[in-house]
């Protein structure tokens, strides 16, 4: 007996879990859609592979032995890991099959990307597109790991990211601005305002956020060295959309992209908390892999580059 005598069949593991859960050979075999004699042979074969009995057949219902109890959670982990590997492999296949693969920061995937993509598709047939929406840090990781062709994110000359440091080609697609906003009080004034006698509560971006990186990098130059310590942070998150929700609830002040909050400002759901100041101009940028890409990806880059004026094109454009 022992594992050296025969190969392991993964079906035996599924059969073992079924019997461990039901304690009845007939019910477990039925659940596995196989005849009971074949099911019993599978359990015996697994026991021979392990080298010990895994079930006490004298008990009713069949009970796990000490060895079986030790094996059960381990096999459940193995089967779960195999299923996760299968899902990831299929996802990798689907991504590879897509003509174009983008990673976009969460806020731009909701605001800028759909309209921009529509304009591109009006001029160029793109075919299948794979898009991943995540934090700026995660999008950078995907580009550095060569898992996407393009990254769409906010940027600022004073806050270079990892793609800038690695000199990935980049185009400036548009402009945006981070506006300090807060919910209004009954008189329409911001509940949390900059320049007020009492420091406003701040809803801040996390370390993984590209907008947070920009805010941290420029706050001393733009707002003065005493700016950050004077403002208490009461909530932190990766995504501007979540900070917007918290701001709408009156929980504090947040620097949010105008592309996200323009409608809120027009409707009065949010108001400018900086009296028209304290704003941070930012770029909307598209990065690409430096290496040669699929023809449709190269055609998209050429099209976008032709549409940008010389002042907007950067490295490799």
Descriptive tags:
3 domains, 317 residues, 11 strands, two-stranded antiparallel sheet, D-Maltodextrin-Binding Protein, domain 2, alpha/beta, Arc Repressor Mutant, subunit A, disordered C terminus
Structure description:
The structure is a single chain. This protein has 3 domains: 3-91, Arc Repressor Mutant, subunit A (Orthogonal Bundle); 96-174 and 283-307, Periplasmic binding protein-like II (D-Maltodextrin-Binding Protein, domain 2), CATH 3.40.190; 176-282, 3-Layer(aba) Sandwich (D-Maltodextrin-Binding Protein, domain 2), CATH 3.40.190. Helices cover 44% and strands 19% of the residues. It has 12 helices and 11 strands. The strands form 3 sheets. Strands 3, 4, 5, 6, 9, 10 and 11 form a 7-stranded mixed β-sheet that branches. Strands 1-2 form a two-stranded antiparallel ribbon. It has a two-stranded parallel ribbon with strand order 7-8. It is elongated, with a radius of gyration of 28 Å. Mean pLDDT is 88; it is low at 309-317.
Radius of gyration: 28 Å
Helix content: 40-55%
**How many domains make up the coordinates?**
3
CATH class of the largest domain: Alpha Beta
Mean pLDDT rating: 88
Task: State the total count of DSSP E strands.
Answer: 11
CATH topology of the largest domain: D-Maltodextrin-Binding Protein, domain 2
Q: CATH superfamily of the largest domain, please?
A: Periplasmic binding protein-like II
Euclidean distance between termini CA atoms: 66 Å
Shape from CA axes?
elongated
How do the SSEs run, as a string of H and E? HHHEEHEHHEHEHEEHEHEHEEH
Residues in β-strands, percent? 15-25%
Low-confidence runs: 309-317
């Amino acid at each position: 007996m022992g594992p050296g005598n025969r190969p392991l069949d993964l079906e035996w593991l599924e059969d073992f879990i079924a019997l461990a859960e039901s304690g009845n050979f007939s019910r477990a075999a039925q659940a596995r859609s196989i005849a009971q004699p074949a099911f019993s042979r599978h359990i015996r074969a697994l026991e021979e592979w392990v080298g010990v009995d895994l079930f006490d057949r004298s008990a009713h219902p069949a009970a796990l032995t000490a060895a079986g109890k030790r094996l059960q959670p381990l096999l459940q982990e193995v089967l779960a890991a195999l299923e996760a590997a299968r899902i990831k492999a299929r996802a990798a296949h689907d991504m590879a099959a897509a003509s174009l693969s983008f990673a976009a920061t969460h806020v731009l995937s909701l605001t800028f990307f759909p309209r921009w993509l529509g304009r591109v598709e009006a001029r160029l047939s793109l075919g299948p597109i794979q898009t991943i929406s995540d934090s700026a840090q995660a999008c950078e990781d995907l580009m550095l790991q060569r898992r996407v062709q393009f990254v769409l994110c906010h940027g600022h000359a004073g806050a270079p990211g990892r793609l800038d440091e690695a000199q990935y080609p980049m185009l400036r697609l548009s402009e945006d601005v981070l506006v300090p906003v807060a919910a209004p009080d009954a008189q329409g004034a911001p509940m949390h305002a900059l320049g007020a006698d009492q420091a406003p509560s701040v809803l801040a971006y996390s370390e993984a956020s590209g907008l947070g990186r920009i805010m941290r990098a420029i706050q001393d130059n733009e707002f003065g060295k005493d700016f950050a310590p004077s403002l208490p942070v009461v909530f932190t998150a990766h995504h501007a959309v979540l900070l917007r929700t918290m701001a709408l609830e009156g929980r504090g002040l947040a620097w949010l992209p105008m592309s996200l909050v323009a409608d809120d400002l027009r409707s009065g759901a949010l108001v400018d908390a900086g009296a028209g100041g304290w704003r941070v101009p930012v770029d909307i940028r598209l990065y690409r892999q430096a290496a040669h890409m699929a023809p449709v990806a190269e055609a998209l880059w050429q099209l976008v580059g032709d549409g940008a004026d010389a002042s907007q094109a950067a490295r490799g454009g």
